[in-house]
Design a protein that fits this description.
heterodimer, A: 333 residues, MetI-like fold, 2 domains, globular, B: 332 residues, alpha/beta, Rossmann fold, four-stranded antiparallel β-sheet, 12 strands, 24% strand
């Protein structure tokens, strides 16, 4: 197991390295002059542009820029010299001249928002999806199953922005149950009630579509597992249906769902663009979106790399988790 | 009464294509210490018969009628009509079952110790430690060495034959009165088959239980069964003790089955005999004998009796019955 972990971590790092190079290369080869972008839309002062080019390190060849970028990740990075120098401590992902801040600082502020959103939404959709899926499978072909099918159809066909807008219109504007989202975010440790109030509707919005998907998935997995030979053995032993469902069926049925949830969660941590936009949450999705609109290359590179790192890390976690669920994987590893 | 008496068992499945008569009026008895073999091709109803007795068929799609009376010691109970909760107390306790493929029949996520102890715990009010002791005892009984350590092994860490031994240990953990073995050796190598059959025979003698052995392999049956029921298209077509059946098969189907067994004492160049054709669809069974379309000897029967009327199961001699219009003509 230990050797396996080391091997997997090494592979993950290698992949991350390749991804970072690819991302950096794509943006370096785009037909934009990053130095010109730093000086604003209507800027035509070549002196400022050239000064910024040198200050930001865009004056050297692309591969040298990449090496400096990698160095910044581990050692931090200075932009310019003397009193006017800007310092971004390690791990530095670059400096955004649009926002006048280090990319790491910007991400550090946006990530907790997105993480809160993603964790809450995932807990919600897992609870709903697994419960409804199991009930639908257990009462297959009966009214509970039909009701779950209706839920699945609605959930999968409603786009998130529409769910979000509907919730805003009714819960916030018409019924005034929750105040209008101000665009601010209150950290959990500052005021948990306000935190939950801000995130409740985004959670529901995000969870709705996924819960529907998971309901269908869990239902099918449970039905499939119930037809396995080892379930027949469990019945032949004289076990009650309750024990068969809880002990023998769920563990086998939920193993693939752990994989799915881990990867969905990773994707969500990269930023839930639509939901964050609708509810005006200052998360990673909103940060990336504005960066794309404003050609803020350092932020795009930074958020892309972060997303890749999260996906790779979650893959590793999911694989380890799977080994705990399924003993056959343990031995093969 | 006998230990288990099955009477006029009928199992029908509702399918989109029509009603499948999987088991059609099957009756048999099993006595204490006796081994009854049920032999037939795939789809002849041998497995469904026993799943019905165990209550393992989904009631939603299966119509089951008839009776299966088990003598539990406290009077006979009909396994087909008692409430599910009472049936659960009998399953795995009085009647246990082992299956064809021991890999898929054991839960891949739990250790074999966990699974055997679980089987013991449901039916006994005792501590986990006592159940563990019982599990070790059983594993040793079925010939698994180092049983104490092997309790913590997972099914995939065993070979096919060893897994079947584990299944047998799990089935016997509560000293069942009847063991139903559904093709217990089909998924195993020939040498392992012989070991498992010998193990089952030894254990049966030692524990004095009755066994219902379901198989399509008459070779497996010859060494271990007392009585044989041959099934075809959901019906018992011949029933006799093992010597009588091998020596004097009455029904042409049984005859065909016996002739198709490869034998070392036959000239090597001689081709194996086969039964031509396919078993009939259980949705649209012929009006007469289900075997008639494949029967080489139906012309010996006057008129078209084989195609028109289903022969009754007739007792030819003591304990030997056959379902054939040729009764008395075969082997003469």
């Amino acid at each position: 197991m230990f050797g396996y972990l080391i091997r997997r971590t090494a592979t993950s790092l290698a992949i991350l390295f390749a991804v970072s190079f690819a991302v950096y290369a794509i943006f370096a080869l785009l037909p934009f002059d990053p130095a010109a972008l730093t000086c604003g839309k209507n800027c035509n002062n070549p002196a400022i542009i050239e000064a910024n080019r040198i200050r930001l390190g865009y004056d050297v060849p692309f591969w040298q820029q990449y090496i400096v970028f990698l160095g910044g990740l581990f050692a931090g990075r200075n932009y310019g010299q003397g009193a006017a120098a800007l310092h971004c401590p390690a791990p530095s992902l670059g400096y955004s001249f649009n926002q006048h801040e280090c990319v790491t600082t910007l991400i550090g502020r946006a990530l907790p928002v997105t993480a809160s959103l993603a964790i809450g939404a995932m807990i919600l959709w897992l609870i709903i999806g697994i419960t409804l899926g199991v009930v639908a499978a257990r009462f297959r072909g009966r009214s509970a199953d039909t009701a779950s099918t209706v839920f699945v159809l609605i959930g999968t066909s409603l786009p998130t922005f529409l769910t979000g807008l509907l919730l805003l219109v009714f819960v916030v504007i018409k019924w005034k149950i929750i105040p209008f989202p101000s665009g601010n975010y209150t950290p959990f440790f500052e005021n948990p009630i306000e935190w939950a109030q801000i995130l409740l509707l985004p959670w529901i919005t995000l969870a709705f579509a996924s819960a529907a998907l998971y309901t269908r998935f869990v239902r099918n997995a449970v039905i499939e597992t119930l037809s396995e030979d080892f379930i027949r053995t469990a019945r032949a032993k004289g076990l009650s249906e309750k024990v068969i469902l809880r002990k023998h069926t769920l563990r086998a049925a939920l193993a693939p769902i752990a994989t799915m949830a881990g990867l969905d969660f990773a994707a969500l941590l990269g930023g839930a663009i639509l939901t964050e936009k609708v509810f005006n949450l200052p998360g990673l999705g909103r940060l990336s979106l504005s960066a794309v609109v404003e050609y803020d290359l350092p932020i795009i590179v930074g958020t892309t790399l972060l997303s890749a790192a999260i996906v790779i890390a979650m893959n590793l976690i999911v694989d380890i988790l799977y080994a705990f669920i399924d003993p056959r994987v343990r031995v093969a590893a | 009464m006998s230990l288990l008496e099955v009477n006029n068992l009928l199992v029908e499945f509702r399918t989109p294509d029509g009603i499948v008569k999987a088991v059609d009026g099957v009756s048999f008895k099993v006595d204490r210490g006796e081994t009854l073999a049920i032999v037939g091709e795939s789809g002849s109803g041998k497995t469904v018969t026993n799943l019905a007795i165990m209550g393992l068929l989904p009631r939603k799609i299966a119509n089951i009628s008839g009776s299966a009376k088990l003598d539990t010691g406290a009077g006979p109970v009909d396994l087909l009509t008692i409430p599910r909760s009472e049936l659960r107390e009998i399953r795995g306790n009085d009647v246990a079952m082992i299956f064809q493929d021991p890999m898929s029949a054991l839960h891949p996520y739990y250790t074999i110790g966990n699974q055997i102890i679980e089987a013991h715990q449901i039916h006994n009010q005792c501590s986990k430690e006592d159940s563990e002791k019982r599990a070790i005892e059983l594993l040793e009984l079925v010939g698994i060495s180092d049983a104490h350590k092997r309790l913590n092994a997972f099914p995939h860490q065993f070979s096919g034959g060893m897994r079947q031994r584990v299944m047998i240990a799990m089935a016997l953990v509560n000293n069942p009165k009847v063991l139903i073995a559904d093709e217990p050796t089909t998924a195993l190598d020939v040498t392992v088959q012989a070991q498992i059959m010998k193990l089952l025979a030894d254990l049966q003698k030692e524990l004095g239980m009755a066994m219902i052995l379901i198989t399509h392999d008459l070779g497996v049956v010859a060494g271990s069964a007392d009585r044989i029921n041959v099934m075809y298209a959901g019906k018992i077509v011949e029933s006799a003790n093992v010597f009588e059946l091998f020596a004097k098969p009455q029904m042409p189907y049984t005859h065909g089955l016996l002739a198709s067994i490869p034998r070392v004492d036959r000239p090597q160049l001689q081709r194996l005999e086969t039964i031509t054709g396919q078993p009939p669809s259980l949705i649209s069974l012929p009006a007469g004998c289900a075997f008639a379309p494949r029967c080489a000897r139906k012309s010996e029967v006057a008129g078209s009796a084989c195609e028109l009327t289903m022969p009754a199961l007739v007792e030819i001699s003591a304990g030997h019955s056959s379902r054939c219009h040729l009764v008395g003509l075969v082997n003469r």
